[in-house]
Amino acid sequence: MINQHVSRRPASVSRESRRRFLKQLAMGLASGCVLAACAPLLNASVPEEVGVKMPTGAPEDVPAREDSSGWQPPEPRTGDLPAGAGAIDVWGVGTLLFDTSGITSVRPDIFRSGHFSLFDALMQLDRQGDVTLDYHFDETMDTHVIDALNGKSDWWYRAHYAAGWPEPNAFRMDMYPYKNRMWIQLIQGEEEWRARVHRTFRQEVARWNREGQRAIIPDFTIRTPIETWTFKDVEATAHNARSDVLQPGVATALDALISLTERGDLPGLGLTWYESIGAADPVDSYWVEELGASVASGGCGFVYETGPRGFVGFSGSHIHIPADVRVIRSPEYALWFWICL
Known about the structure:
Number of helices: 5
Oligomer: single chain
Shape: globular
Structural class: alpha+beta
Strand content: 25-35%
Radius of gyration: 20 Å
Largest sheet: 4 strands, antiparallel
Distance between the termini: 30 Å
Number of domains: 2
Helix content: 10-25%
Protein backbone atom coordinates (compact mmCIF):
# COMPACT_ATOMS: atom_id res chain seq x y z
CA MET A 1 0.00 0.00 0.00
CA ILE A 2 1.38 3.42 -0.99
CA ASN A 3 0.23 6.69 0.53
CA GLN A 4 1.08 10.16 -0.71
CA HIS A 5 1.35 12.69 2.11
CA VAL A 6 0.52 16.25 1.28
CA SER A 7 3.50 18.34 2.36
CA ARG A 8 6.00 20.71 0.81
CA ARG A 9 7.87 17.64 -0.40
CA PRO A 10 5.42 14.75 -0.90
CA ALA A 11 6.59 11.55 0.78
CA SER A 12 5.76 8.05 -0.43
CA VAL A 13 5.13 5.38 2.22
CA SER A 14 5.46 1.63 1.82
CA ARG A 15 4.70 -1.05 4.41
CA GLU A 16 5.93 -4.59 4.93
CA SER A 17 4.79 -7.35 7.23
CA ARG A 18 6.13 -8.02 10.73
CA ARG A 19 6.89 -11.58 9.64
CA ARG A 20 9.13 -10.46 6.79
CA PHE A 21 10.96 -7.97 9.01
CA LEU A 22 11.62 -10.49 11.76
CA LYS A 23 12.92 -12.91 9.16
CA GLN A 24 15.41 -10.26 7.99
CA LEU A 25 16.34 -9.60 11.61
CA ALA A 26 16.99 -13.28 12.22
CA MET A 27 19.31 -13.37 9.19
CA GLY A 28 21.83 -11.27 11.02
CA LEU A 29 20.76 -7.65 11.15
CA ALA A 30 20.93 -7.68 14.95
CA SER A 31 24.47 -8.96 15.07
CA GLY A 32 25.93 -5.54 14.29
CA CYS A 33 24.52 -3.72 17.31
CA VAL A 34 27.05 -2.06 19.60
CA LEU A 35 26.75 -0.37 22.95
CA ALA A 36 26.67 3.25 21.90
CA ALA A 37 23.76 2.77 19.49
CA CYS A 38 21.84 0.27 21.59
CA ALA A 39 22.52 2.02 24.86
CA PRO A 40 18.89 2.58 25.87
CA LEU A 41 18.35 -1.15 25.62
CA LEU A 42 20.94 -1.87 28.30
CA ASN A 43 21.18 -1.19 32.03
CA ALA A 44 20.15 2.47 32.05
CA SER A 45 19.59 5.10 34.67
CA VAL A 46 15.96 6.08 35.23
CA PRO A 47 15.10 8.24 32.20
CA GLU A 48 12.90 11.29 31.99
CA GLU A 49 10.27 11.11 29.27
CA VAL A 50 10.04 14.10 26.97
CA GLY A 51 8.12 15.20 23.91
CA VAL A 52 4.77 15.38 25.71
CA LYS A 53 4.78 18.97 26.94
CA MET A 54 5.87 22.39 25.79
CA PRO A 55 9.45 23.20 26.78
CA THR A 56 10.00 25.71 29.57
CA GLY A 57 13.02 27.86 30.26
CA ALA A 58 14.35 27.39 26.73
CA PRO A 59 17.29 29.55 25.64
CA GLU A 60 16.36 32.70 23.72
CA ASP A 61 17.38 31.27 20.37
CA VAL A 62 15.43 28.03 20.94
CA PRO A 63 11.79 29.16 20.81
CA ALA A 64 9.06 26.73 21.83
CA ARG A 65 7.31 25.42 18.73
CA GLU A 66 3.99 23.75 18.16
CA ASP A 67 3.05 22.05 14.91
CA SER A 68 -0.20 21.07 13.29
CA SER A 69 0.28 17.38 14.17
CA GLY A 70 0.09 18.18 17.88
CA TRP A 71 3.54 16.73 18.56
CA GLN A 72 5.79 18.78 20.81
CA PRO A 73 9.53 19.16 20.11
CA PRO A 74 11.97 18.09 22.82
CA GLU A 75 13.05 20.42 25.58
CA PRO A 76 16.60 21.77 25.09
CA ARG A 77 19.05 20.09 27.47
CA THR A 78 22.57 20.73 28.69
CA GLY A 79 25.20 18.00 28.73
CA ASP A 80 28.64 18.04 30.30
CA LEU A 81 31.25 20.41 28.93
CA PRO A 82 34.61 18.91 27.94
CA ALA A 83 36.89 18.98 30.97
CA GLY A 84 40.26 17.73 32.13
CA ALA A 85 42.69 15.91 29.87
CA GLY A 86 41.90 14.03 26.68
CA ALA A 87 44.08 11.64 24.71
CA ILE A 88 44.80 10.80 21.08
CA ASP A 89 46.66 7.67 20.02
CA VAL A 90 48.81 8.62 17.01
CA TRP A 91 50.24 5.74 15.01
CA GLY A 92 54.03 5.74 15.14
CA VAL A 93 54.10 8.30 17.96
CA GLY A 94 52.07 6.96 20.89
CA THR A 95 49.31 8.23 23.14
CA LEU A 96 49.43 12.01 23.56
CA LEU A 97 47.47 13.97 26.16
CA PHE A 98 45.85 17.33 25.50
CA ASP A 99 44.26 19.94 27.74
CA THR A 100 40.58 20.46 26.90
CA SER A 101 40.37 23.83 28.64
CA GLY A 102 40.38 26.81 26.34
CA ILE A 103 40.04 24.88 23.07
CA THR A 104 38.24 27.00 20.49
CA SER A 105 36.67 25.20 17.54
CA VAL A 106 37.72 25.93 13.99
CA ARG A 107 34.05 25.28 13.16
CA PRO A 108 32.23 28.14 14.94
CA ASP A 109 29.49 27.60 12.36
CA ILE A 110 28.86 24.19 13.98
CA PHE A 111 29.86 24.25 17.65
CA ARG A 112 28.89 26.44 20.57
CA SER A 113 31.62 27.97 22.72
CA GLY A 114 32.99 25.32 25.08
CA HIS A 115 32.37 22.43 22.67
CA PHE A 116 34.62 21.26 19.86
CA SER A 117 35.38 18.46 17.42
CA LEU A 118 37.98 15.71 17.25
CA PHE A 119 39.86 17.79 14.69
CA ASP A 120 40.06 20.62 17.23
CA ALA A 121 41.54 18.15 19.73
CA LEU A 122 44.21 17.22 17.16
CA MET A 123 44.95 20.91 16.59
CA GLN A 124 45.49 21.26 20.34
CA LEU A 125 48.29 18.68 20.14
CA ASP A 126 49.89 20.87 17.46
CA ARG A 127 49.55 23.97 19.66
CA GLN A 128 51.17 22.10 22.55
CA GLY A 129 54.11 21.18 20.30
CA ASP A 130 53.46 17.44 20.52
CA VAL A 131 52.88 17.05 16.76
CA THR A 132 53.31 19.16 13.65
CA LEU A 133 50.02 19.42 11.78
CA ASP A 134 49.59 20.75 8.23
CA TYR A 135 46.00 21.15 7.04
CA HIS A 136 43.61 23.20 4.93
CA PHE A 137 39.87 23.78 4.65
CA ASP A 138 38.28 22.40 1.47
CA GLU A 139 35.04 24.23 0.62
CA THR A 140 34.00 21.58 -1.89
CA MET A 141 33.93 19.02 0.95
CA ASP A 142 32.98 21.43 3.76
CA THR A 143 35.69 20.06 6.02
CA HIS A 144 39.28 20.45 7.17
CA VAL A 145 41.75 18.07 5.54
CA ILE A 146 44.97 16.76 7.11
CA ASP A 147 47.77 17.36 4.60
CA ALA A 148 50.55 16.02 6.82
CA LEU A 149 51.20 14.99 10.40
CA ASN A 150 54.86 15.12 11.44
CA GLY A 151 55.71 15.34 7.76
CA LYS A 152 53.78 12.20 6.78
CA SER A 153 50.59 12.07 4.69
CA ASP A 154 47.57 9.75 4.24
CA TRP A 155 45.93 10.02 7.67
CA TRP A 156 42.44 9.09 8.78
CA TYR A 157 40.93 8.53 12.21
CA ARG A 158 38.86 6.21 14.36
CA ALA A 159 36.97 7.08 17.53
CA HIS A 160 34.32 5.99 19.98
CA TYR A 161 32.61 7.32 23.08
CA ALA A 162 32.83 5.80 26.56
CA ALA A 163 32.13 2.03 26.61
CA GLY A 164 32.22 1.77 22.82
CA TRP A 165 34.91 0.34 20.56
CA PRO A 166 36.64 1.33 17.30
CA GLU A 167 34.60 1.31 14.11
CA PRO A 168 35.17 2.42 10.51
CA ASN A 169 33.68 5.83 9.82
CA ALA A 170 33.05 8.04 6.81
CA PHE A 171 32.29 11.20 8.77
CA ARG A 172 33.94 14.61 8.87
CA MET A 173 36.44 14.81 11.70
CA ASP A 174 35.71 18.50 12.30
CA MET A 175 31.99 17.71 12.85
CA TYR A 176 32.52 14.76 15.23
CA PRO A 177 31.67 16.13 18.72
CA TYR A 178 34.23 15.54 21.44
CA LYS A 179 33.01 14.03 24.73
CA ASN A 180 34.82 13.32 27.97
CA ARG A 181 36.30 9.82 28.36
CA MET A 182 36.28 9.09 24.63
CA TRP A 183 38.93 7.27 22.58
CA ILE A 184 40.54 8.79 19.46
CA GLN A 185 43.15 7.29 17.15
CA LEU A 186 44.98 8.70 14.12
CA ILE A 187 45.90 5.99 11.62
CA GLN A 188 48.15 6.15 8.57
CA GLY A 189 48.22 4.38 5.23
CA GLU A 190 44.56 5.05 4.46
CA GLU A 191 45.02 6.83 1.11
CA GLU A 192 42.44 4.80 -0.85
CA TRP A 193 39.90 4.94 2.00
CA ARG A 194 40.33 8.68 2.41
CA ALA A 195 39.99 9.28 -1.34
CA ARG A 196 36.68 7.38 -1.40
CA VAL A 197 35.38 9.29 1.62
CA HIS A 198 36.39 12.61 0.12
CA ARG A 199 34.50 11.81 -3.09
CA THR A 200 31.32 11.27 -1.09
CA PHE A 201 31.90 14.54 0.80
CA ARG A 202 32.10 16.42 -2.51
CA GLN A 203 28.95 14.74 -3.80
CA GLU A 204 27.10 15.57 -0.59
CA VAL A 205 28.15 19.22 -0.60
CA ALA A 206 27.14 19.53 -4.26
CA ARG A 207 23.63 18.24 -3.34
CA TRP A 208 23.53 20.56 -0.35
CA ASN A 209 24.43 23.58 -2.49
CA ARG A 210 21.89 22.66 -5.19
CA GLU A 211 19.21 22.68 -2.50
CA GLY A 212 20.19 26.12 -1.24
CA GLN A 213 22.16 24.58 1.66
CA ARG A 214 19.09 22.89 3.08
CA ALA A 215 19.53 19.44 4.62
CA ILE A 216 17.67 17.23 2.12
CA ILE A 217 17.94 13.44 2.48
CA PRO A 218 17.05 11.77 -0.86
CA ASP A 219 16.22 8.32 0.57
CA PHE A 220 14.85 7.89 4.11
CA THR A 221 13.62 4.57 5.50
CA ILE A 222 12.14 3.58 8.87
CA ARG A 223 11.66 -0.10 9.70
CA THR A 224 9.69 -1.13 12.77
CA PRO A 225 8.49 -4.63 13.74
CA ILE A 226 5.08 -3.68 12.35
CA GLU A 227 5.68 -1.61 9.22
CA THR A 228 8.16 0.19 7.01
CA TRP A 229 8.02 3.78 5.83
CA THR A 230 10.01 4.95 2.81
CA PHE A 231 10.30 8.69 2.23
CA LYS A 232 11.90 10.61 -0.60
CA ASP A 233 13.63 13.99 -0.35
CA VAL A 234 13.10 14.57 3.37
CA GLU A 235 14.10 18.02 4.56
CA ALA A 236 15.60 18.10 8.05
CA THR A 237 14.74 21.45 9.60
CA ALA A 238 16.88 22.43 12.58
CA HIS A 239 14.98 22.34 15.90
CA ASN A 240 17.93 23.27 18.12
CA ALA A 241 17.25 20.49 20.61
CA ARG A 242 20.98 20.47 21.46
CA SER A 243 21.61 24.19 21.57
CA ASP A 244 24.15 23.52 24.33
CA VAL A 245 26.48 21.85 21.82
CA LEU A 246 25.47 23.05 18.35
CA GLN A 247 24.86 26.48 16.90
CA PRO A 248 21.27 27.52 16.08
CA GLY A 249 20.18 26.34 12.65
CA VAL A 250 22.52 23.32 12.45
CA ALA A 251 20.54 20.30 11.23
CA THR A 252 21.07 16.85 12.74
CA ALA A 253 20.02 13.27 12.03
CA LEU A 254 17.35 13.61 14.72
CA ASP A 255 15.94 16.74 13.08
CA ALA A 256 14.86 14.66 10.07
CA LEU A 257 12.63 12.49 12.29
CA ILE A 258 11.24 15.53 14.09
CA SER A 259 10.50 17.23 10.76
CA LEU A 260 8.63 14.17 9.46
CA THR A 261 6.59 14.05 12.66
CA GLU A 262 5.75 17.74 12.55
CA ARG A 263 4.51 17.42 8.98
CA GLY A 264 2.27 14.53 9.96
CA ASP A 265 4.13 12.01 7.79
CA LEU A 266 5.35 9.98 10.80
CA PRO A 267 2.63 9.02 13.31
CA GLY A 268 4.46 8.96 16.61
CA LEU A 269 7.92 9.86 17.85
CA GLY A 270 9.07 9.39 21.45
CA LEU A 271 12.40 10.65 22.82
CA THR A 272 14.13 9.95 26.12
CA TRP A 273 17.07 11.89 27.59
CA TYR A 274 19.91 9.83 29.09
CA GLU A 275 22.78 11.25 31.11
CA SER A 276 24.52 7.88 31.42
CA ILE A 277 23.81 4.25 30.57
CA GLY A 278 25.80 1.68 32.49
CA ALA A 279 29.48 2.17 31.70
CA ALA A 280 28.62 4.67 28.97
CA ASP A 281 29.17 7.90 30.86
CA PRO A 282 28.60 10.55 29.72
CA VAL A 283 25.80 9.93 27.24
CA ASP A 284 23.98 13.27 27.50
CA SER A 285 21.71 12.75 24.51
CA TYR A 286 18.17 12.07 23.40
CA TRP A 287 17.45 8.52 22.25
CA VAL A 288 14.59 7.55 19.97
CA GLU A 289 12.43 5.03 21.83
CA GLU A 290 9.17 5.26 19.91
CA LEU A 291 8.46 5.30 16.17
CA GLY A 292 4.91 4.83 14.94
CA ALA A 293 3.25 2.20 17.11
CA SER A 294 6.53 0.57 18.20
CA VAL A 295 8.08 1.41 21.58
CA ALA A 296 11.50 0.25 22.83
CA SER A 297 11.16 -2.40 25.51
CA GLY A 298 13.43 -4.94 27.16
CA GLY A 299 16.22 -5.81 24.75
CA CYS A 300 14.58 -4.27 21.68
CA GLY A 301 14.72 -0.74 20.30
CA PHE A 302 15.80 1.55 17.47
CA VAL A 303 19.21 2.28 15.96
CA TYR A 304 20.12 4.32 12.90
CA GLU A 305 22.65 5.06 10.22
CA THR A 306 23.04 7.84 7.69
CA GLY A 307 25.64 8.91 5.15
CA PRO A 308 26.92 7.75 1.74
CA ARG A 309 25.64 4.46 0.30
CA GLY A 310 29.19 3.54 -0.63
CA PHE A 311 29.79 3.07 3.10
CA VAL A 312 26.48 1.51 4.06
CA GLY A 313 26.12 -0.23 7.41
CA PHE A 314 29.21 -0.91 9.48
CA SER A 315 31.53 -0.04 6.59
CA GLY A 316 31.38 3.64 7.62
CA SER A 317 27.84 5.08 7.77
CA HIS A 318 26.66 3.23 10.90
CA ILE A 319 28.69 5.04 13.54
CA HIS A 320 27.66 5.71 17.10
CA ILE A 321 27.30 9.44 17.29
CA PRO A 322 23.95 10.16 18.96
CA ALA A 323 21.40 11.41 16.43
CA ASP A 324 20.80 14.70 18.25
CA VAL A 325 24.42 15.83 17.72
CA ARG A 326 25.20 14.13 14.40
CA VAL A 327 25.44 17.05 12.01
CA ILE A 328 24.16 16.46 8.49
CA ARG A 329 24.43 18.34 5.22
CA SER A 330 22.66 16.26 2.57
CA PRO A 331 23.48 12.57 3.23
CA GLU A 332 22.60 10.10 0.51
CA TYR A 333 20.35 8.04 2.75
CA ALA A 334 19.10 7.55 6.30
CA LEU A 335 17.85 4.31 7.86
CA TRP A 336 16.22 3.76 11.26
CA PHE A 337 15.55 0.15 12.19
CA TRP A 338 14.41 -2.04 15.05
CA ILE A 339 16.84 -4.43 16.64
CA CYS A 340 16.72 -6.98 19.48
CA LEU A 341 19.72 -8.10 21.51
